[in-house]
Write the structure tokens for this entry.
Amino acid sequence: MADMLIAALLLVGAFFGLVGSWGLVRLPQAMQRLHAPTKATTLGVGGVLLASIAYFGWVRAEWSVHELLITLFLFLTAPLSALMLARAWLHRERERVHAALPRPAASGVDWGTFQPPPEESGSDGAEPRP
Amino acid sequence: MRMRSKWRRWVPHPAVSLALTLVWVALQNDFSAGQWLMGVILGVVVPLLLRPFWPDLPRVHSWRTAIVYAAIVLWDIVRANIQVAGWILLRRPETLRSTWLVVPLRLHRPEAITLLAGTITMTPGTVSCDLAADGSALLVHCLHTDDPDATVAGIKSRYEERVMKIFGEGDA
């Protein structure tokens, strides 16, 4: 029973990992390719980690919480690396894409990649922490 | 009241202290008293050292909303994974309608915006790509949507409302 569950979790994880990589190869635009590793891979890694918890818990009887930490760190790092990649892409391709981008609603304000933030005045610094 | 201020002085951010302690114990994978003690020491000392560098750390105003939010986001991650996997496998890439979305923000705190941006990246076919220079809007890339306005409205009602509640932000 435990074996079946672990096998199923591993298969689910492998499937989503594969889909993420396949998307990376197949999608035509750089920004579209960014979606594949940030999403499909999360569930891929999640499946493998759940399988690991189940294996060590039931088969080896050594409960381990390291997998939960891996999940936590993954959730912290995946959006950040995606943001860095996106901004690097915006910066590199700015001459081609800047005109096509929608602008923020406020007048005279551009995206952070193209315009330095306004002078910090007390606590309303709006740049996310790196 | 005096007790409370003394308590605050040594444990300025109870949530951070608790998180550090739990992460330490989990990292050691050893739930013995010694590791708990070490975790508590770290949980007290690290925030004290950190305090001068991060003076305005926000407090969580509504733990209930935070827990509901975490559950919703986890569920959405699973849903988003299946949805994006379906798009990648079943649709011809040319038929994907990718667009840029502008999500105007009502949030002001950097920590709250960071949380929202991270959530957007992890969930339904969207990646947050940039922030307006004055922090008034997020630039979001959407892998596929038939109705961009509805997607933006969805992000605002499903996530931003709750993040505002968690950090107790009103319309300032």
